[in-house]
Amino acid sequence: LLVGIVSVPAMETLSTAAISVQQARRRIRTMAEGKPQVRYRARVRVTHSPWQEVAAVAQEERPDLLLLDYPSCFEVLGLSLQDVMDSLPCDVALARGPIPAHPHKVLVTARGGPFAELAMRLALSVTDTHGELSTLHVRSTQGSDLSFRGIAQVLANLPQVQRKEVVTDEAVSAILQAAQEADLVVMGATGQPVSQPDSLGPVTDRVLQETHVGVLVVKTRQAMPPDIATNVTVGQMAISILVDKWFAENTFHADEFADREYLLELKRQQGLTISLALPALNEEETVGRIIETIRRPLMDEIPLIDEMVLMDSDSSDRTREIAESYGLPIHIHQHTLPRYGARRGKGEALWKSLYCTRGDIVLWIDTDIANIHPRFVYGLIGPFLLNRHLQFIKGFYRRPLRVGDRIQAGGGGRVTELTARPLLNLFYPELSGVVQPLSGEYGGRRKALEQVPFFSGYGVEIGMLIDMFEKFGLSAIAQVDLQERVHHNQSLESLSKMSFAIIQAVITKLERRYGQVLLDDLNRTMKLIRYEGGLFLDVEEIAERERPPMIELPEYCTLWK
User: Fold this and answer.
1) Distance CA 103, CA 341 (A)
2) How wide is the angle at C-alpha 256 spanned by C-alphas 161 and 476, nearest 5°?
3) Which of 81, 234, 387, 516 is the most buried (most CB within 10 A)?
């Protein structure tokens, strides 16, 4: 957004600027011509107080970033650098040229300071599509490096960024040397108070003065904590860079993959086979319609799916009988791999489905979906065929909740919002962009799924998500909008049990990460409040236990020799 501001000395009337305003309008129009991404205002503002006018425009437009030319704009504003930097209307970047139109080699000085997040965001935005982005972490021989940890986590999940670390007390020399191989440097201003009114800090000042390439210096509007040098949360804020980038690039919509013939051609080119396993327990009302809705368009008409099996948890209704009438292979998970015993829970069925299927890609969808549509499957298939790097795909959707005779459009997913997502935000912030970590519609590449353990109960979804992230990185995970899912809503007591199991699953993963035992057997019983014939407590064991990675089972390895 280009904004024109004409400054008039205090002793002159604003009307004297009429010709200057016309010239400014022409200049802005020329700058915007041929650039569809640039908008501009026909109105140019005239003022005696240019910085106040800039701040007013920022308040009206609410831009993400205010770009100021350094140092000439401060001469025009008639203010010191410090006056401006102490009263920022929004995040600011100071540009000292030459700034290339399409930077090919961009260097970010990733010191881990309070403005590192904004510097990384800007660098990711301006780097040319086929350009090179590198980071330089200058670590002092003395002092704390805690604030860099958040940026380090981000960089570990951005394989396209080249990383370099230098241990030295001569930060400026290290930056200037690295800048010789770049055509743009992006860095944060100092977070510490400066002694001079026209200073951005000793390191930044010298880089601006001595480097011969373009420089962008950024500063956020947010207040800085007093203990900047040792404040780890300053670095952790940078996680949002990674999450935002992942969300934008790895969130798909099922409608993108509605062309089944195109998907089939991609599948054939890659030589892949795809299995769909349907976990079920007493789903006679819906299982037949699900099989019919998926099989005809995705197996009979367009063979996207090579195999569909029912993984039954010993249903007592007609679930297996209905599936058998459609000719579906049926496996009762309690009778599968009997050497390892039988556990209750959906996770047990999913784990054993790896043994019962043969596809290179294994998908799961729940069998209680009332509004089943082929998109629940082809929506999951599409990202795998589009991006061979992806290892795990989660579905998400709107989940209406029935309250009496009324439907709340977005009232479902209560355990997701009250338990799962808060836990992920707290302990695994990189996964905070996953819309529905507990959704029952998801899948993965066999080579990845066989390497991770499976919880036997309600913790299977969140446990698998965490393991996939820790083993393969955030970029290997994607999510797909499947629009809307209608199913039977569970009772509050059932949701409470589910939450208890999910909390156990997350704590188990944390124990493994930090090598400390936090749970014992006493923590795996839950006191449930009963109101039947009076108020009393009932104790129920809800123990989330894991199955080992399938690749560790001799029976499985024999199948895949």
Assistant:
1) 60
2) 30
3) 234
Query: Using only C-alpha atoms, what is the Rg of the chain?
Result: 29
Which residue in this structure is represented by tokens 């205090």?
10
Q: How far apart, in whole angstroms, are the C-alpha atoms of residue 92 and residue 219? A: 5
- CA dihedral of 426, 427, 431, 435, whole degrees rounded to 10: -40
Cα angle value 268/273/277 (rounded, 5°): 145
Q: In this structure, are strands 105-109 and 132-139 parallel, antiparallel, or unpaired?
A: parallel
Q: Please give the structure tokens belonging to residue 39.
A: 């908008």
At residue 296, what is the residue type? R
Token pair for 138 = 């200058």
Is residue 374 a contact partner of residue 363, using CB atoms and an 8 Å limit? no
Mean per-residue pLDDT, 200-227: 81
More confident: 70 or 481: 481
Q: Give the DSSP letter string of 135-168.
A: EEEEE-SSS--GGGHHHHHHHHT-TTEEEEEEE-
Q: How many residues does the chain have?
A: 561
DSSP single-letter state for residue 490: P
Give the list of residues 6+ apart from residue 74 with CB closer than 8 angstroms, or none: 68, 80, 81, 84, 198
The burial of 247, by beta-carbon neighbours within 10 Å (0-12 exposed, 13-18 middle, 19 or more buried), is given as middle
Q: Alpha-carbon distance 238 to 113, whole Å?
A: 10
First CA to last CA distance, the chain: 61
Residue 188's pLDDT band (cuts 50, 70, 90): confident
CB 449 within 8 A of CB 547: no
Pick from 154, 111, 109: nearest CA to 135: 109
Pairing of the two strands 214-219 and 92-96: antiparallel
**How is residue 256 written in tokens?**
């993108």
CA 67/CA 241 separation, integer angstroms:
20
pLDDT at residue 509 in the model: 93
Instruction: Give the whole-angstrom CA distance, residue 400 versus residue 487.
Output: 9
Residue with tokens 């007093």: 226
Of 367, 357, 394, 342, nearest to 545 by C-alpha is 342
Task: Give the model confidence (pLDDT) of 110-149 as tens digits.
Answer: 776 668 778 888 888 888 878 899 999 888 877 656 667 6
Phi and psi angles of residue 452, each rounded to the nearest 5 degrees, phi first: -115, 150
When the pLDDT of each residue in the chain is averaged and rounded to a whole number, the result is 87
Q: Which tokens belong to 451?
A: 């390497």
Using CA atoms, how far apart are residues 54 and 4, in angstroms rounded to an integer? 9
Residue 476 is classified by DSSP as G
Placement of tokens 């400014």 in the chain: 24
Residues 157-180 as b/e (b if ≥16 CB within 10 A, e otherwise) read bbeebeeeeeeeeebbebbbebbe
* Residue 60 in tokens: 């009206």
* Overall pTM surpassing 0.90 (yes/no): no
Q: Cβ(68)–Cβ(99) under 8 Å? A: no
For residue 317, the one-letter residue type is D
CB 318 within 8 A of CB 392: no
For residue 13, give both structure tokens.
Answer: 């009337």
Extract the tokens encoding 437. Answer: 């970590």
Q: CB–CB of 395/441 below 8 Å?
A: yes
Segment (H or E) for 443: strand 442-445
